[in-house]
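Bug #2210: token dump truncated for Glycosyl transferase?
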Amino acid sequence: MKQIGVLALGDKYGGGIYQYTQSFVDALKYDNTNNYIIFCNAHDTRFDHYGFEVRKINKLNSNFFKKIVRIFQFILFIRKPWFFSKKELENFEDIDIFISPVISAYPHFYMDKPFVFTLHDMQERYYPDFFSVIELSTRWLNNRTLSMCAARILCESNYVKSDIVKFTGVNENKISIIQSPPPEYFLNYKFINAQFEIVSQKYNLPNKYLFYPAQCWFHKNHIKLVEAFKKLTLKYDDIYLILSGSQQNNYDNLIRKIDELKLSEKVKHIGYVDYDDLPYIYKMSKMLVMPTLFESISIPIYEAFALKIPVCSSNVVALPEQVGNAGILFNPNSTNDIASKIELLLIDEAFAKDKAEIGFQKVTNYSHEHYKKKLLSVLNDL
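Reproduced locally. Full output below:
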């Protein structure tokens, strides 16, 4: 029986990786052939009742000298835990294999142990303007070094797999495509009728709204969505747009655009929402809109599918592969196309309901039991 360390170190501010990690652990709890140890941040209580051993990590800040040395270690593939404390070494020394759902070097690279990690996308190769010089350098170094040193690489689409081969030069046989289902929390969710009114009042939700949950990163394309939504408001005065996620990065530009288009009464950004409230916000919406410019796999799309919510999505990267015939696709650079495709779902409720049902059937085929078997096929190869 292997000792496998699952590095669940991402938090809710990291976008869809938070939910991706949740699905990862949801699947592994069905396996009794290995011993799993979950490493998570000190404040994270998600996995405390899963039956796994959970080790909370208080990652120490590195001084300037240590950071420089670790950069050179990374560049030169020197996999030594030179600056690890005794406590850190004790935390990790009994692990046979590390699995990292996030792109991180800590601690597996430095412990010089086999590891599997997920490379979610290589967006910086297509939209370098969305990143600072430091971010571009960090992403290049992480992707290059981790890909070269990993025992296996996971991704969620053929599109991303081809990018990994193209931009890192690793052998394609080292890469496994495994799509993850949404967290079990969303599958077969049991709603409480009284909670709808509570959640609606908590976030001051309108009766009829589109929903877009996404961090305010540039590639999430909030500006184009708002411009397209303006066109819809000229025809439908009872429709609203609800946004959730971070209020940073492109947030100030978004608010300026909302004011410029005189949409402050129609567009509401509710920030981060409590995870327990999220299914209700989905369920009360008319549809999920996903106007992103770059996405390997969209967790919110799977969440919407699981809750039988219609999906209107951009047609970029792997999203057509993910959505299939279960939603409506649009060109995210065309406000006219975004608006017209949203309108299709708004005016034809039967059509929207049919799409939602197809989405539900699609996502229920991605069971966590099936997901577990695919993950184990990778781990057993090691």
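Output looks complete on our side. The radius of gyration is 21 Å. Marking as cannot-reproduce; reopen if the truncation happens again.
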